[in-house]
Every structure is written in structure tokens, then in C-alpha cells.
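This part of the workshop introduces the protein records we will be handling. An example says more than a description, so a record of this kind follows:
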Amino acid sequence: MVEWLGRSADPGRVHTEGRMVRAAIEEAREAVAGLLGVRPRQMVFTSGATEAVNAATWGAARLRPGGVVACAGVEHSCVRDAAERAGNVAVIPVDGDGRVDVGFVRDLVNGAAPVALVHCQWGNHEVATLQPVEEVVDACRSAGVLVHVDAAAAAGLTPSDLGALDADLVSVSGHKFGGPPGVGAMVVRRGLRVPPLLVGGEQERARRAGMENVPAIVGFGVAAAAAAGSVGVEAEAARRRTDALLAAALAAPGVIAYGSTTDRLPHIVCVGVEGVEAEAVLLGLDQAGIAAHSGSACSSESLEPSPVLAAMGVDAERSLRLSVGWSTTDDDVAAFGHAFPGVVSRLRALAG
């Protein structure tokens, strides 16, 4: 990336410098497409998954004006907010693990009301539950309804063949699997053309206007190439470590698991801690050198408890989200297992 920070040539120009930048972008495009199992021409580089989600939703809504946008309460906030701005929203119900009701989706897309788009995440970003994306895509395809899959929490972190899935629109993020922040992609099914969210230039084959962020795109490509060669091995290691984290957490009294503990993303687990506020647990773990997260309002930028956990009927003020990445070690997992019981017991003693 550092090499390309010093090059300001426009990749849309035909001079030598411009062609060199263009070659770097297309090399990165091929690497990311290879990781995802799609063709390079299907990919539109964006500033991240949030922009990709908004572009997919905006474009689909304009292809089917007036149609309903279907979205579950467990989707990421950018998906829910984009759906609400696009038009009337049909809320897809979920079960206690956060898994969407495929029967509801099938009835909706085959009903009398026109449907512009159905959202279905690959796996949940808070509780890790995997969604029945293949069934949802099949139901939508049979009914001629567009479907968007948010794969930001899955791509590069677990084997995911988006080419075989053949969803109409897919959003991915670079920083989730070691790439730089500020870059992502929207994957568009072959033969589908959606109106661009950003206009004013012919970049990305007129699908996303604006000067390309070349250093970030190059970094995205390098991370994708590295992940493509190790995603299976790293997913197995992540699953082993999160299994250990979950076991250590559940060994403490009054701790329960949220989301599916089996059919889940390999790098995330979520638990509820009875009797103490999540913020206090997070601070106690932080003092022990452990960074965790919660769906609680006080520990995020939102003023409301996690909509994901609320949709599941779970107390968001008691949740603890634990995740691992490529830099996580077994010693990190052991440190959590050593610190967590003491943090919880001390907080309960203070509360009592």
C-alpha cells in the first residue's frame, strides 16, 4: 500500500502511469474475486460494506419502484437503515437463535404485494448464527425477486462460495479479514444492472463514480490473496478458539449462550451474564488486557440496546460478544479463561 500512496496517476488515463495504476486495481479485483468465487467483472469496489449495502438497496429499489423491502431485525444497522429509507419494510421474523423464517420469506415473495428486495445476511455479526442463505436465495429466484446478502462478517473468515450461491447482490468488507479500513465491494450477479448510487463519472464500468482509492484497493487484494490460501485452516483455528472461549464463559455460574452454538460463524460467540451490567464486565476484562464488546447501549455508539438481541428476545444489557482474528493466540484465549470468572464474581459481590 505504501508504494501506491505516492502514485497519484488517474487509472482512467491511457498514459503509462495511468495504465500501471489500472493494472494494480485489476490485479486486486482478480484476487478478491478469486477469494469470493466470482468473476472479476462482477465486482464493484466501494468504500466498504456500508456503501455496498446502500448501493445495492438503492439500486434494487429503483428497479422495482414501490416494492416492499424485506429485512430481519437481526441484520446490521446499515442494512436496516438502508431498507427503511428505500421504502416500505416487511420485517422477517427470527427464532431464538436469530435465524430467519424461510417460510415467511417464501410466502412474502409469492404474495400479492410486489417485493423489491429481500435482505439476508450470511452470518450474524453479533451472535454468529448462520442464516439459511441458500434457501432464501432459491425462494427469491423462483419468485423473480431480487435478494441481497450481507457477507461482511463471513467473507474471508469462513469458506463461502458466492459464485455457487448466485445471489443478485452481495456486500463484503476488506477490514474484516485483515485488509485496510475504507474499502469493500458489491458483487453483482451476471446480467443484472442496477442504477448506481454514486454518479458523476465512469469509474467501475459506470457502476460507482469517483476516483478509486488505489492504496486501499491494493491492500484489499493482498489480504484477499492471503486469505484465499488459508481461509479453511484459519476458520478451523478460529472455531477451536471460540469453542474454548465459550466453554470458559459457560463454566461460570449464570452465563448462557446467545445464538446458535453449532451452526455459526467460526470466529464469534456471544453470551449473556446474569446479575451484572455488560459495561462493568467489559471494563473488568479491559483491565485484564482483554478487549470484548457488548450489545448493550452503554458500550456502543447507539443510544438503544442491540436490535439484534431485541429481535431474538434477549436482554441486550447482559450480552458479551467475543471474537477472534488472525492475530489471536491460544495464550489470549487462556487469558480470558483465567480473568473472566474473577471479574464476574467480583462484580456480583459488589452488586450484592
